[in-house]
Description:
The chain is an all-alpha fold.
Amino acid sequence: MAGVREKKKRRTQDGILKAAKKLFIKKGYRDARIEDIAAEAEVGVGTVYNYFGSKRVLLLAMMDLETTEILALGDKMIAGMKKEPVVVLGGLIGIYLDAISTWDKILLRDLVVSGIMEQSTGEELMKADYRLIEQVTGLVRNFQDEGVMDGSIEAERAALVLYSMLCMRVMMYMFMDSITLDLIKIEIQKDIELVFRGWKES
Length: 202
């Protein structure tokens, strides 16, 4: 019986999270109301509050779930690819970008503003970034262990440099209508290649 209750609870949670994302995209994070989310999920307003407590907690739970799914996809991709750093890193970043494609540009900008205006929200949202950075760090360490990357390089610093390039490209995507994610994928691949070639004096 406990197993049935847990499955029902998970279905309810998933339904609320799915409804929240839909309405965050449709109305924006700040304008989407808990009442609207409850109606979309076909549950009572009290049920939403019982599961998540507030719209902020709901947003963070949604981001945590999506990050977990992204990490799983990344691990699967890494395990199935040849150990060529530029190719594998480009593929991993591509998975991160594919996840971003499910979010509307306006909503992405809204989330950035919310993170800036509310420090606690910004700190919580950054936790998702740190989880992704840890995945890149682990990949760099694997390359070092296999002798295909310089072992003297700090893996954490290398991962942060790579992720920073991604963040800059995503910011360009968010604020410039002419830039698409397909273009970002091409450009980030070139960025990664530049880092691995290095800047040398002529």
